[in-house]
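User: I'm putting together notes for a lab meeting next week and I want to include a structural view of one of the chains we've been expressing. I don't have a solved structure, so I'd like a prediction I can at least talk through. The sequence is below, exactly as it appears in our construct file.
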Amino acid sequence: MANANRTKPACIVRLDRLLLVASGPSRSVPRIEGYTVIRDIFVRRQTTMATYARSRELRSPSGTKIYWQYQKQKGWLAPWRITFVPDDRRGLRRGDLDAIIARCKSYHLLLVEIAFDFDTTAMSRDFVRRHALFGKCRFRNTAAGGVRYYGARKSNKLVRCYLKSATNGYRIELELHSGFLRAHDILKASQLMNLAAILVPKHIRFAQMNWGVLRPYLIRKFGNGTGMATFREARRRRKSLHKLCGFLRRKGIRNVRRFLRPLKLNRTLRDALDIWKTKISPDVRWTRL
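Assistant: Thanks for the context. Below is the predicted structure for the 289-residue chain, given as structure tokens.
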């Protein structure tokens, strides 16, 4: 009966995807004990510049897919480019990483994707629109599939928000690019756990406008007539926190976020990150995964 009464956590953090470049003792791809080679194929050129000639797909005992690109076509490229794509429900764990990294002579991370999976009773597209902030990332557009994008692929951070059928919940993905990783000195797998202290609240947080503080400020700044008119215009934009903040900035109000009140959900994010940190820590035992 105890298991039947156990409730699903409001948020689960998973390491969803990871990309690194590396070199090894030799140019050939090593055999990894316990890993199955699914295929080894010639890679057709995807852009105007050739990068790697071959790609080997491996499958780990846990179901993680590993795409190992090799036979570089340019001298400045690293000998290997390795992408980890784990099972959606399990996420990437320490053992998945160490089994591959142990065969590398040197490496550094190029991309890290952190997924925040929420129960749909706690998170939705409308809730993200009303309350989510992702640092300096601005809302870009909503795709036909209902995905909300913040940031850009060429920026340091790209955020995707969408319903995830595989986890039966709502997912917020932070795709952290090489510029972000370098700026925060996260270049090795042993440094991934530092993200638990970095992401909240600077790069993901939930807030709402403190209307009781904003209203008297606008009246003091613009006078009663213009101040109340500006306040009413702001209220009309309350369904989108980004549009609301953008409107106030255009009105000449600096540091708009001082009028925001954080939600208790931010504490849930920090707790979920602390749990995830124990799964990616260098001290974790593989048998516990």
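A couple of points you could mention at the meeting. The two ends are 25 Å apart (CA to CA). Residues 244 and 250 are 10 Å apart (CA to CA).

User: Perfect, that's what I needed.
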